[in-house]
């Protein structure tokens, strides 16, 4: 029996949805917001394999518990319980998919890029991503394990 085009389309859709599954993450102190979903693309398995010279898309859906005029992202590579700052191209949350001012009770999709530079060492570490409000309180904080590879 030859599968119908609809059957093939449904199977492909299911495979694509499996690749875009939300990541398992650790909430590391979201106070002024609650994380609904974290996606890193492409990252079909965990730990995420981050290839040097590649940029990864970050999408965090969260609900705000406060009002804030703005927000700022801080990203770290956590090694041996030490946070090493990790530069990102756009730290301003209001330029990363969030419509500011941030309103209490609203959900937002935060979008950014995680560039992995060629000069980074090939190591396993934890990526820690924070978004803080005007009062320097955490709208969200999440961690995932990654492995930087050539």
Automatic annotation (TrEMBL):
Residues 1-20 form the signal peptide. The keyword Disulfide bond applies. One of its GO terms (molecular function) is cholesterol binding. Its main location: secreted. It comes from the Eukaryota. Keywords: Disulfide bond, Secreted, Signal. GO terms for biological process: cholesterol efflux; intracellular cholesterol transport. It is found in: Secreted. SMART domains: ML. Residues 25-146 form the MD-2-related lipid-recognition domain. InterPro entries: Ig_E-set (IPR014756), ML_dom (IPR003172), ML_Npc2-like (IPR033916), NPC2-like (IPR039670). One of its GO terms (cellular component) is extracellular region. Pfam families: E1_DerP2_DerF2. Belongs to the NPC2 family. This is NPC intracellular cholesterol transporter 2.
